[in-house]
Specification:
This protein is α+β, with helices and mostly antiparallel strands and about 200 residues long. It is about 25% helix and about 25% strand. The chain folds into two domains: about 10-125, no CATH class; about 140-200. The model has no long low-confidence stretch (mean pLDDT about 80).
């Protein structure tokens, strides 16, 4: 399982339109016009595919971005994370989060089980959450999928009455608290087999 995340601040640089074009230029079957059109679609603000393209590069199948761009119904970064359902020994199908009825057509017969698993693992590198504090609320209470990679650096403070307590710092590009570095005492506890609850006390 992936354990390192790509901060929001780094994603803008690492998944820039310039670098995307450089990757596309290395792929067979992409003309100059294809590269221009594909990079523009990947980098669209509202329904872009920057994260999906970065994941495809990590998996080693960047040319398959075409299947995501042409997928009907459309699919984009906003649909991440994807989930998987096994369908016997023959393979698996991939779905939008929260949808177990309509498999994504962009994961077609070209995908083998290992590639699917690698995509689903690597996607979490680009999905670290961001935090903001509501008015007059010193505590933030949120729930996440168990695979989520939190944008924290950790230091254990030992056991507390509710479980192990950590002092941590949130990466500065993953919060909007008005200061560069935030120290927190997060309490992490399982809710069920599909979620974690994160309670953050901000200092």
């Amino acid at each position: 399982m992936a354990t390192e995340f790509c901060p929001n601040s780094a994603q803008a640089e690492l998944i820039s339109e310039r670098l995307i074009r450089q990757h596309l230029q290395l792929l067979p079957g992409f003309s100059d016009k294809d590269i221009q059109n594909t990079s523009a679609k990947i980098c669209r603000e509202m329904d872009g595919h920057r994260k999906i393209f970065a994941i495809l590069v990590l998996v080693g199948v960047p040319a398959r971005i075409r299947h995501f761009l042409s997928s009907q119904p459309s699919v984009s970064d906003a649909d991440l994370p994807f989930t998987k359902k096994e369908h016997g020994p023959g393979g698996a199908q991939v779905y939008r989060h929260g949808d177990s009825v309509n498999p994504l057509k962009c994961f077609n017969s070209l995908w083998n089980r290992l590639e699917i698993n690698r995509f689903l693992e690597f996607q979490w590198k680009f999905l670290a959450p961001s935090f903001s504090r509501g008015a007059e609320k010193p505590v933030i209470d949120q729930r996440f999928e168990p695979e989520i990679i939190l944008p924290f650096s950790w230091k254990s403070l030992g056991q507390g009455s509710g479980g192990e307590v950590f002092r941590a710092e949130i990466h500065p590009s993953h919060h909007s608290f008005g200061i560069e570095m935030v120290s927190i005492a997060p309490l992490i506890r399982p809710i069920d087999s599909h979620a974690l609850e994160i309670v953050l006390t901000i200092f």
